[in-house]
Specification:
The protein is mainly alpha-helical. 57% of the residues lie in helices and 10% in strands. Helix 4 crosses helix 10 and helix 7 runs parallel beside helix 14.
Length: 382
Protein backbone atom coordinates (compact mmCIF):
# COMPACT_ATOMS: atom_id res chain seq x y z
CA UNK A 1 0.00 0.00 0.00
CA UNK A 2 1.68 3.23 -1.14
CA UNK A 3 1.02 6.84 -1.90
CA UNK A 4 1.79 10.24 -0.42
CA UNK A 5 -0.55 11.55 2.27
CA UNK A 6 -2.44 14.77 1.56
CA UNK A 7 -4.40 16.78 4.11
CA UNK A 8 -7.79 18.31 3.39
CA UNK A 9 -10.14 20.52 5.37
CA UNK A 10 -13.61 19.14 4.65
CA UNK A 11 -16.69 21.06 5.77
CA UNK A 12 -20.12 19.70 6.65
CA UNK A 13 -23.11 22.03 6.52
CA UNK A 14 -26.18 20.60 8.22
CA UNK A 15 -28.29 23.09 6.30
CA UNK A 16 -27.76 20.73 3.35
CA UNK A 17 -29.31 17.84 5.31
CA UNK A 18 -32.99 16.95 5.56
CA UNK A 19 -33.02 18.69 8.95
CA UNK A 20 -31.60 21.93 7.58
CA UNK A 21 -34.74 24.01 7.96
CA UNK A 22 -35.23 22.88 11.55
CA UNK A 23 -31.59 23.63 12.35
CA UNK A 24 -32.12 27.17 11.04
CA UNK A 25 -35.30 27.57 13.04
CA UNK A 26 -33.61 26.41 16.24
CA UNK A 27 -30.58 28.63 15.50
CA UNK A 28 -28.25 25.68 15.85
CA UNK A 29 -24.63 25.61 14.76
CA UNK A 30 -24.66 23.97 11.34
CA UNK A 31 -21.13 24.31 9.91
CA UNK A 32 -18.33 21.97 10.99
CA UNK A 33 -14.79 21.58 9.66
CA UNK A 34 -12.69 18.42 9.83
CA UNK A 35 -9.07 17.77 8.89
CA UNK A 36 -8.91 14.55 6.88
CA UNK A 37 -5.99 12.55 5.54
CA UNK A 38 -6.05 11.18 2.00
CA UNK A 39 -3.87 8.90 -0.08
CA UNK A 40 -4.13 6.76 -3.18
CA UNK A 41 -3.78 3.12 -2.27
CA UNK A 42 -4.88 -0.32 -3.39
CA UNK A 43 -6.86 -3.17 -1.90
CA UNK A 44 -5.34 -6.05 -3.79
CA UNK A 45 -5.70 -5.14 -7.48
CA UNK A 46 -8.36 -2.52 -6.69
CA UNK A 47 -7.21 1.15 -6.57
CA UNK A 48 -8.73 3.19 -3.77
CA UNK A 49 -9.02 6.82 -2.79
CA UNK A 50 -8.58 6.34 0.98
CA UNK A 51 -9.70 8.92 3.55
CA UNK A 52 -9.32 8.88 7.32
CA UNK A 53 -9.08 11.03 10.43
CA UNK A 54 -5.79 10.94 12.32
CA UNK A 55 -6.15 8.98 15.53
CA UNK A 56 -3.58 11.06 17.42
CA UNK A 57 -5.44 13.20 19.98
CA UNK A 58 -8.82 11.88 18.87
CA UNK A 59 -9.73 10.61 22.35
CA UNK A 60 -8.34 13.66 24.17
CA UNK A 61 -6.20 11.49 26.45
CA UNK A 62 -3.64 13.00 28.85
CA UNK A 63 -4.03 16.49 27.44
CA UNK A 64 -3.30 15.33 23.89
CA UNK A 65 -6.33 16.66 22.07
CA UNK A 66 -7.42 17.02 18.45
CA UNK A 67 -9.75 19.68 17.13
CA UNK A 68 -11.52 16.91 15.25
CA UNK A 69 -12.71 15.33 18.53
CA UNK A 70 -14.81 18.29 19.67
CA UNK A 71 -16.07 18.94 16.13
CA UNK A 72 -17.30 15.32 15.95
CA UNK A 73 -19.21 15.57 19.25
CA UNK A 74 -20.65 19.00 18.43
CA UNK A 75 -21.72 17.94 14.94
CA UNK A 76 -23.40 14.82 16.32
CA UNK A 77 -25.34 16.84 18.90
CA UNK A 78 -26.48 19.51 16.43
CA UNK A 79 -27.76 16.77 14.13
CA UNK A 80 -29.63 15.12 17.03
CA UNK A 81 -31.16 18.47 17.97
CA UNK A 82 -32.23 18.99 14.40
CA UNK A 83 -33.89 15.59 14.10
CA UNK A 84 -35.49 15.82 17.57
CA UNK A 85 -33.79 12.88 19.30
CA UNK A 86 -31.85 15.24 21.59
CA UNK A 87 -35.07 15.95 23.46
CA UNK A 88 -36.83 12.61 23.13
CA UNK A 89 -34.24 9.82 23.38
CA UNK A 90 -32.49 9.14 26.70
CA UNK A 91 -29.97 6.91 24.91
CA UNK A 92 -28.92 9.79 22.64
CA UNK A 93 -28.62 12.13 25.62
CA UNK A 94 -26.37 9.66 27.41
CA UNK A 95 -24.22 9.18 24.30
CA UNK A 96 -23.65 12.92 24.12
CA UNK A 97 -22.75 13.26 27.80
CA UNK A 98 -20.42 10.25 27.77
CA UNK A 99 -18.66 11.37 24.58
CA UNK A 100 -18.10 14.76 26.22
CA UNK A 101 -16.69 13.06 29.35
CA UNK A 102 -14.17 11.07 27.29
CA UNK A 103 -11.07 13.26 27.93
CA UNK A 104 -11.65 12.84 31.70
CA UNK A 105 -12.20 9.06 31.50
CA UNK A 106 -9.81 6.40 32.81
CA UNK A 107 -8.10 5.72 29.48
CA UNK A 108 -5.78 2.89 30.55
CA UNK A 109 -8.37 1.31 32.82
CA UNK A 110 -10.98 1.32 30.06
CA UNK A 111 -8.75 -1.11 28.18
CA UNK A 112 -9.34 -3.66 30.91
CA UNK A 113 -12.90 -3.70 29.58
CA UNK A 114 -11.99 -3.88 25.89
CA UNK A 115 -8.41 -4.09 24.63
CA UNK A 116 -7.56 -1.45 22.02
CA UNK A 117 -4.24 0.05 23.07
CA UNK A 118 -1.86 1.01 20.29
CA UNK A 119 1.28 -1.11 20.65
CA UNK A 120 3.78 0.65 18.39
CA UNK A 121 5.47 4.00 18.84
CA UNK A 122 6.69 6.32 16.14
CA UNK A 123 10.43 5.69 16.19
CA UNK A 124 12.77 3.70 13.95
CA UNK A 125 13.04 0.66 16.22
CA UNK A 126 9.29 0.32 16.64
CA UNK A 127 8.76 0.74 12.92
CA UNK A 128 11.02 -2.28 12.36
CA UNK A 129 8.98 -4.20 14.92
CA UNK A 130 5.77 -3.20 13.15
CA UNK A 131 7.13 -4.50 9.86
CA UNK A 132 7.91 -7.83 11.54
CA UNK A 133 4.39 -7.95 13.00
CA UNK A 134 2.81 -7.31 9.61
CA UNK A 135 5.04 -9.92 7.94
CA UNK A 136 4.14 -12.52 10.57
CA UNK A 137 0.44 -11.72 10.22
CA UNK A 138 0.69 -12.02 6.44
CA UNK A 139 2.05 -15.55 6.79
CA UNK A 140 -0.83 -16.50 9.07
CA UNK A 141 -3.39 -15.00 6.70
CA UNK A 142 -1.95 -16.78 3.68
CA UNK A 143 -2.47 -20.15 5.39
CA UNK A 144 -6.09 -19.25 6.15
CA UNK A 145 -6.80 -17.41 2.87
CA UNK A 146 -9.93 -19.40 2.03
CA UNK A 147 -11.21 -20.15 5.54
CA UNK A 148 -14.63 -18.70 6.35
CA UNK A 149 -16.23 -17.43 9.55
CA UNK A 150 -19.87 -16.45 10.05
CA UNK A 151 -20.92 -13.14 11.60
CA UNK A 152 -22.16 -14.53 14.91
CA UNK A 153 -18.95 -16.49 15.46
CA UNK A 154 -16.89 -13.38 14.73
CA UNK A 155 -18.91 -11.40 17.25
CA UNK A 156 -18.59 -14.01 19.98
CA UNK A 157 -14.96 -14.91 19.40
CA UNK A 158 -13.65 -11.34 19.22
CA UNK A 159 -15.56 -10.66 22.45
CA UNK A 160 -13.97 -13.69 24.09
CA UNK A 161 -10.49 -12.45 23.18
CA UNK A 162 -10.70 -8.67 23.55
CA UNK A 163 -13.51 -8.27 26.08
CA UNK A 164 -15.62 -7.16 27.75
CA UNK A 165 -15.40 -9.60 30.71
CA UNK A 166 -18.22 -10.99 32.80
CA UNK A 167 -19.11 -9.03 35.95
CA UNK A 168 -20.83 -10.03 39.16
CA UNK A 169 -24.36 -8.92 40.06
CA UNK A 170 -23.16 -6.33 42.59
CA UNK A 171 -21.11 -4.63 39.86
CA UNK A 172 -24.23 -4.41 37.69
CA UNK A 173 -26.14 -2.84 40.58
CA UNK A 174 -23.40 -0.31 41.29
CA UNK A 175 -23.18 0.46 37.57
CA UNK A 176 -26.88 1.38 37.39
CA UNK A 177 -26.50 3.61 40.44
CA UNK A 178 -23.49 5.42 38.95
CA UNK A 179 -25.25 5.92 35.63
CA UNK A 180 -28.21 7.58 37.30
CA UNK A 181 -26.07 9.64 39.65
CA UNK A 182 -23.68 10.94 36.97
CA UNK A 183 -26.02 11.22 33.99
CA UNK A 184 -29.59 11.29 35.27
CA UNK A 185 -30.19 14.96 36.13
CA UNK A 186 -28.27 16.18 33.10
CA UNK A 187 -30.41 13.98 30.84
CA UNK A 188 -33.51 15.52 32.42
CA UNK A 189 -32.13 18.99 31.72
CA UNK A 190 -31.34 18.10 28.10
CA UNK A 191 -34.86 16.76 27.65
CA UNK A 192 -36.18 20.20 28.59
CA UNK A 193 -33.88 22.02 26.19
CA UNK A 194 -30.93 22.61 28.50
CA UNK A 195 -27.36 22.66 27.20
CA UNK A 196 -25.15 22.64 30.32
CA UNK A 197 -23.26 19.39 30.99
CA UNK A 198 -21.33 20.78 33.96
CA UNK A 199 -23.26 18.76 36.55
CA UNK A 200 -22.22 15.47 34.93
CA UNK A 201 -18.64 16.71 34.54
CA UNK A 202 -18.54 17.67 38.23
CA UNK A 203 -19.99 14.38 39.40
CA UNK A 204 -17.56 12.40 37.30
CA UNK A 205 -14.67 14.46 38.68
CA UNK A 206 -15.94 13.79 42.21
CA UNK A 207 -16.03 10.03 41.58
CA UNK A 208 -12.50 10.16 40.22
CA UNK A 209 -11.29 12.18 43.22
CA UNK A 210 -12.96 10.07 45.90
CA UNK A 211 -12.64 6.63 44.28
CA UNK A 212 -10.45 6.56 41.19
CA UNK A 213 -7.35 8.06 42.80
CA UNK A 214 -7.56 6.31 46.17
CA UNK A 215 -6.76 2.81 47.33
CA UNK A 216 -9.55 0.30 47.86
CA UNK A 217 -13.02 0.64 46.32
CA UNK A 218 -12.31 -2.21 43.88
CA UNK A 219 -15.92 -2.67 42.77
CA UNK A 220 -16.52 1.05 42.28
CA UNK A 221 -13.29 1.34 40.27
CA UNK A 222 -14.46 -1.49 38.05
CA UNK A 223 -17.66 0.44 37.36
CA UNK A 224 -15.62 3.55 36.51
CA UNK A 225 -13.58 1.38 34.12
CA UNK A 226 -16.78 0.20 32.43
CA UNK A 227 -18.13 3.74 32.13
CA UNK A 228 -14.76 4.88 30.78
CA UNK A 229 -14.99 2.36 27.97
CA UNK A 230 -18.58 3.43 27.36
CA UNK A 231 -17.26 6.97 26.94
CA UNK A 232 -15.04 5.62 24.14
CA UNK A 233 -17.91 3.63 22.67
CA UNK A 234 -20.17 6.69 22.77
CA UNK A 235 -17.55 8.71 20.93
CA UNK A 236 -17.28 5.92 18.34
CA UNK A 237 -20.99 6.21 17.66
CA UNK A 238 -20.70 9.99 17.25
CA UNK A 239 -17.75 9.37 14.92
CA UNK A 240 -19.76 6.89 12.88
CA UNK A 241 -22.65 9.33 12.41
CA UNK A 242 -20.29 12.11 11.34
CA UNK A 243 -18.58 9.81 8.83
CA UNK A 244 -21.92 9.19 7.16
CA UNK A 245 -22.16 12.94 6.57
CA UNK A 246 -18.51 13.16 5.51
CA UNK A 247 -19.01 10.43 2.94
CA UNK A 248 -21.96 12.29 1.42
CA UNK A 249 -19.73 15.34 1.11
CA UNK A 250 -16.73 13.43 -0.29
CA UNK A 251 -18.91 11.65 -2.85
CA UNK A 252 -20.02 14.98 -4.26
CA UNK A 253 -16.72 16.84 -4.06
CA UNK A 254 -14.31 14.06 -5.06
CA UNK A 255 -16.52 11.68 -7.08
CA UNK A 256 -15.79 8.61 -4.97
CA UNK A 257 -16.48 5.28 -6.65
CA UNK A 258 -19.12 2.93 -5.30
CA UNK A 259 -16.41 0.54 -4.09
CA UNK A 260 -14.62 3.40 -2.34
CA UNK A 261 -17.80 4.39 -0.51
CA UNK A 262 -18.41 0.78 0.54
CA UNK A 263 -14.90 0.53 1.95
CA UNK A 264 -15.28 3.68 4.03
CA UNK A 265 -18.67 2.52 5.30
CA UNK A 266 -17.07 -0.73 6.38
CA UNK A 267 -14.04 0.92 7.97
CA UNK A 268 -15.48 4.03 9.64
CA UNK A 269 -19.10 3.19 10.46
CA UNK A 270 -20.42 1.18 13.40
CA UNK A 271 -21.37 -2.23 11.99
CA UNK A 272 -24.81 -3.06 13.42
CA UNK A 273 -26.70 -6.36 13.40
CA UNK A 274 -30.31 -7.16 14.29
CA UNK A 275 -30.96 -8.52 17.78
CA UNK A 276 -33.32 -11.25 18.89
CA UNK A 277 -34.80 -8.68 21.28
CA UNK A 278 -36.54 -6.83 18.45
CA UNK A 279 -36.03 -4.01 15.98
CA UNK A 280 -35.25 -1.41 18.66
CA UNK A 281 -32.17 -3.35 19.82
CA UNK A 282 -29.14 -3.67 17.59
CA UNK A 283 -25.96 -5.63 18.18
CA UNK A 284 -22.62 -3.89 17.65
CA UNK A 285 -20.55 -6.39 15.66
CA UNK A 286 -17.23 -5.10 17.03
CA UNK A 287 -18.47 -4.44 20.58
CA UNK A 288 -18.73 -0.67 20.34
CA UNK A 289 -15.46 -0.23 18.46
CA UNK A 290 -14.78 0.59 14.81
CA UNK A 291 -12.54 -1.30 12.40
CA UNK A 292 -10.82 1.89 11.29
CA UNK A 293 -9.76 2.85 14.83
CA UNK A 294 -8.62 -0.51 16.21
CA UNK A 295 -4.89 -1.39 15.96
CA UNK A 296 -5.56 -5.02 14.99
CA UNK A 297 -7.50 -3.88 11.93
CA UNK A 298 -4.72 -1.45 11.03
CA UNK A 299 -2.25 -4.34 11.00
CA UNK A 300 -4.68 -6.45 8.98
CA UNK A 301 -5.14 -3.98 6.15
CA UNK A 302 -1.38 -3.39 5.92
CA UNK A 303 -0.84 -7.01 4.85
CA UNK A 304 -1.20 -7.93 1.16
CA UNK A 305 -3.66 -10.72 1.97
CA UNK A 306 -5.70 -8.54 4.33
CA UNK A 307 -5.92 -5.81 1.69
CA UNK A 308 -7.01 -8.41 -0.87
CA UNK A 309 -9.75 -9.73 1.43
CA UNK A 310 -11.09 -6.23 2.00
CA UNK A 311 -10.90 -5.49 -1.73
CA UNK A 312 -12.80 -8.65 -2.62
CA UNK A 313 -15.54 -7.74 -0.14
CA UNK A 314 -16.08 -4.19 -1.43
CA UNK A 315 -15.99 -5.42 -5.04
CA UNK A 316 -18.62 -8.10 -4.34
CA UNK A 317 -20.54 -6.99 -1.21
CA UNK A 318 -23.42 -9.39 -1.86
CA UNK A 319 -21.12 -12.43 -1.96
CA UNK A 320 -21.38 -13.99 1.49
CA UNK A 321 -18.21 -16.04 1.02
CA UNK A 322 -16.19 -12.81 0.59
CA UNK A 323 -17.72 -11.48 3.79
CA UNK A 324 -16.90 -14.65 5.72
CA UNK A 325 -13.30 -14.82 4.48
CA UNK A 326 -12.84 -11.20 5.53
CA UNK A 327 -14.19 -11.91 9.01
CA UNK A 328 -11.94 -14.93 9.48
CA UNK A 329 -8.89 -12.93 8.43
CA UNK A 330 -9.81 -10.12 10.80
CA UNK A 331 -10.24 -12.61 13.66
CA UNK A 332 -6.70 -13.89 13.06
CA UNK A 333 -5.43 -10.30 13.22
CA UNK A 334 -7.34 -9.79 16.48
CA UNK A 335 -5.73 -12.89 17.97
CA UNK A 336 -2.27 -11.78 16.94
CA UNK A 337 -2.94 -8.37 18.48
CA UNK A 338 -4.22 -9.99 21.69
CA UNK A 339 -1.02 -11.98 22.04
CA UNK A 340 1.14 -8.88 21.59
CA UNK A 341 -1.08 -6.92 23.97
CA UNK A 342 -0.72 -9.65 26.58
CA UNK A 343 -4.48 -9.80 26.96
CA UNK A 344 -4.01 -13.29 28.40
CA UNK A 345 -0.72 -15.00 29.25
CA UNK A 346 -2.34 -18.30 28.38
CA UNK A 347 -2.91 -17.12 24.82
CA UNK A 348 0.79 -16.43 24.36
CA UNK A 349 1.64 -20.12 24.92
CA UNK A 350 0.08 -21.09 21.61
CA UNK A 351 -0.04 -18.55 18.85
CA UNK A 352 -2.95 -19.13 16.46
CA UNK A 353 -1.91 -20.09 12.97
CA UNK A 354 -3.92 -20.56 9.85
CA UNK A 355 -7.66 -20.62 10.27
CA UNK A 356 -7.71 -22.61 13.52
CA UNK A 357 -7.57 -20.34 16.56
CA UNK A 358 -10.01 -22.32 18.66
CA UNK A 359 -7.47 -23.98 21.01
CA UNK A 360 -6.00 -20.63 21.95
CA UNK A 361 -9.50 -19.24 22.43
CA UNK A 362 -10.42 -22.01 24.88
CA UNK A 363 -7.53 -20.98 27.10
CA UNK A 364 -8.67 -17.37 26.94
CA UNK A 365 -12.34 -18.17 27.57
CA UNK A 366 -11.38 -20.18 30.66
CA UNK A 367 -10.35 -16.84 32.16
CA UNK A 368 -12.88 -14.52 30.56
CA UNK A 369 -16.36 -14.88 29.20
CA UNK A 370 -19.24 -12.63 28.29
CA UNK A 371 -19.66 -8.87 28.24
CA UNK A 372 -19.85 -5.79 30.41
CA UNK A 373 -22.92 -4.74 32.44
CA UNK A 374 -25.98 -4.09 30.36
CA UNK A 375 -25.98 -0.40 29.54
CA UNK A 376 -28.04 2.03 27.57
CA UNK A 377 -25.38 2.89 25.06
CA UNK A 378 -24.31 -0.61 24.08
CA UNK A 379 -27.08 -2.69 22.61
CA UNK A 380 -24.60 -5.49 22.07
CA UNK A 381 -24.84 -6.17 25.80
CA UNK A 382 -28.21 -7.86 25.17
Amino acid sequence: MSGDIDYHDVEIDLCDSIYGSKCDRLELRTNFKFELCRKQTALGPSPLDQWWIRKQGLYGERGNDSANRQEIVDCFWSLCQGEGSALEDRRIQELYILATLLPQARSNASRRVFADASLTKYDAEEQLNRAAVVEQLEQMLQVARDTKLDVLSFYRRTGDVLGPPQYEVDVHTCYEEFVEEILGETCDALRHGGEDLQLSLDRWAEKMRKIGRRSGHAMEKTVLDVLSYECRSAFHQCYSVVWQLLLERLQVEFSLSEECVLFHRLWHLDQLLPSNEGDEHLVHLFHGHLFGLHPACGDFICTPTGAELVGELVMAPSDNSCHQRFLNGLLIAVHQYAIRNDVAKELRKKQPSGGDVEDAERQQIARKSGRRPKGRREADAT
